[in-house]
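Hi there,

I know you've been waiting on this one. I reran it after we fixed the sequence typo, so this is the corrected version. Both the input and the resulting structure follow.
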Amino acid sequence: MPFPDGLRALNHPDFRHFFSAQLVSQIGTWMQSVAQAWLVLQLTDSPLLLGLIGTLQFGPMLLFSVVSGAIADRLPKRQLLMATQTALAAQALTLAVLVGSGHVQYWHVGVLAALAGFANTLDNPARQSFVVEMVGKDDVINAIALNSAAFNAARIIGPVAAGLLIARFGVVPAFVINGTSFLGVLVTLGRVRAAGRPRRHGDTTMRRAILEGLRYALRAPEIRLILTVLLVVSLCVFNFSIYVPLLARTVLGLGAEGFGFLMAAVGVGAVTGALTLGTAVRRSPPPALLFTTAGAACAALVALSLVRHVWLAALALFVTGFAGIMTVAGGNTALQIAAPDHLRGRVMSLHVLVFGGSVPIGAFVVGAISERWGVSTAFFVNGAAGLLALAGLLAAGHLSGRRPEPER
């Protein structure tokens, strides 16, 4: 019996199996994210050093995502994903052993965060472009929305579960669960029919392949606009692994369980936003929608700078998650649809570059501001900066980006 229209991408067996395995793995990933942040605060009690971990983890995306996109277009995507998922499992289990043995130090967390960053830099463009090959272009909007919903459902379940585990048993179980959760993804990847085989590149060198993708993106007005809006949101909004533990610990005086609750509020908002996008938008989201949701997310950050009560903080984080994921998933969808098949990996690597690669910069800025003036000031500065940047784009007349003609 077919799935209803709002879940139509699940009618594709490959995507349905991959989606289920990824949901379990992402719960583990969010558990590790919470546990890692809490571990760093236990080891250092320093917002700046916590921000530095984010810089180390997302720095490889900033430096190498363009190269990883060219690699994703030249190698079988399924095999590449199996290699990256294995590396991420090994990273989580190594961290579990170090903490469990009592030998963990801050530099261990930093090195392992950087290694995870390298694995994710290869994983992201391959995984995102693999989705189209599993469902086809007609259902890609729904597939991306469902992936975003799953990712953010995991953002709800993972932090709550991690908070409960950390409060009772410490951080080690979260790392173990994350490491073992990758086994389901590996089994599923071994069974899916889509291989993600690369198209022939002839004598094209890696350098020429990278330049081809960059030239296409720079010449396409809509691509440039989407990437710019995503850059603003990534720099200003998507630093929850820094914002939320500092808000919970230093502003609201909460413990690990309260931290998990606030992270879950972000996740509930994000799931709601992703499902709204997948249900209400059947074609490429218009630029006006991306501007509106990006502005709402930045405004919610400004509101968070004034919050001193846990329920108001949860509400503001819900709005931030809802509006932020509408922007990110909408931008992802528009890029996937606009990109020609042979350039999709490289176009999505630019998505990784601006969305994930700017996180280390944003994380360091948030950590530095919070260290000096407090996290409430960091909320205000980042929210106001995001609103000013979006206003500047509107003033420059960039709202009506034109869809590029796909190259053949």
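Quick highlight: The CA atoms of residues 27 and 154 lie 4 Å apart.

Best,
R. S.
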